[in-house]
Design brief:
This protein is an alpha/beta fold. The protein is built from eight helices and 16 strands. It has helices at residues 25-38, 54-64, 88-101, 183-191, 214-225, 247-254, 265-277, 282-289, and strands at 44-48, 65-66, 71-75, 107-111, 114-117, 122-123, 132-133, 141-143, 147-149, 163-164, 172-176, 199-204, 229-234, 258-259, 291-292, 309-310.
Length: 314
């Protein structure tokens, strides 16, 4: 057996190379359309990009690539390829091999010998080779002397025909709540209605806790009146937003906020953009946010998150 074997590859380089922080939904659409055009010609696909927004891109593509039956892996490096101790070469060669050798019908991120479900990842370290983590879900595979695949974690093969959805509706605002936050700014945003944004994502404390500030409650009530959906995520990397876990978040549940459960903020935002892009109403989006579409949120066999439903594909 020749362990140096690599599959035949075709390289597509975009005219304008971007830093990771410059990637935005327009570039997601560009990538998705290229995958669609070449889908039948290749066994797997590798996307090389900067690391800063890799988890956002992976999360978005996981929803945009509907009925994906092939392996798509994003990778990059912490140190440029030209440097002596770069991690680029190892990440690249391993990713190319895995993209063609594994039967994983998902968008993944490969970094430092670990293959993660893309919409479960987040960049956790700016200065280490193991820059990415999947805080609430184990790696799909690990690379050592051999490739160890956690087959029980993989998404099932889709039943429908592959297609790409590109009409992402990104009218949302993400706010990290801190003790010195100006809640009146949120109220002014809510008063502008859905013409400004359709979803307000609040990164709150712990399991989704927020102070009983009358101005915050007024803001959420006003958002409800103008059909502005309010979604809460946690500032903690690990764990889940749990409705009614503490008395301090019962008042939020009563006002109709949507818990993100154990989704990352990256996946939460991508999912909101995808669902509103489908033309769903706020109530329909809220229901789908509690539904496991692409393995982005916990199910009963993996995490203790109540109220999560799983569907095959949307």
């Amino acid at each position: 057996q020749n362990d140096t074997f690599l599959p035949t590859v075709t390289v597509k380089e975009y005219p304008s190379l971007l830093h990771g922080c410059d990637m935005n939904p327009e570039h997601w659409v560009l990538i998705a359309n290229d995958l669609e055009r070449n889908y039948d010609e290749y066994d797997g696909f590798v996307i090389i990009m900067g690391t800063d927004t890799m988890s956002y891109t992976a999360s978005a593509l996981s929803f945009m690539l509907e009925n994906l039956a092939k392996t798509v892996i994003l990778t990059g490096s912490q140190v440029p390829y030209c440097k002596t101790f770069s991690d680029a070469r190892r990440n690249l060669l391993a990713t190319i091999s895995l993209a063609c050798a594994l039967d994983i019908a998902e968008v993944c991120v490969f970094f430092d010998d670990k293959l993660f479900r893309g919409n479960r990842t987040r960049k956790a370290d700016a200065g280490a080779f193991d820059a990415f983590t999947s805080p609430n879900f184990p790696p799909l595979a690990t690379l050592g002397l051999s490739v160890q695949v956690n087959s029980s974690l993989l998404l099932p093969q889709p039943r429908g025909r592959f297609k790409v959805f590109t009409r992402m509706d990104c009218k949302m605002v993400v706010v990290k709540f801190v003790p010195i936050f100006d809640v009146d700014a949120l109220l002014r945003l809510a008063n502008q209605g859905t013409g400004t944004c359709k979803a307000l994502v609040l990164e709150l404390y712990g399991t989704g806790n927020a102070p009983k500030d009358p101005r915050l409650l007024e803001t959420i009530k006003r958002a409800k009146e103008v059909a502005l959906m309010v979604v809460i995520t946690s500032q903690c990397a690990r764990g889940a937003v749990m409705a009614r876990a503490y008395a301090v978040n019962e008042h939020l549940t009563e006002l109709g906020v949507i818990p993100s459960m154990d989704m990352t903020t990256e996946a939460t935002c991508a999912k909101i953009a995808y669902l509103f892009g489908k033309g769903l109403s706020p109530d329909q989006v809220a229901a789908q946010m509690m539904t496991n579409l692409r393995g982005e949120c916990g199910s009963a066999e993996h995490t203790n998150v109540p109220g999560v439903r799983s569907v095959s594909r949307l």
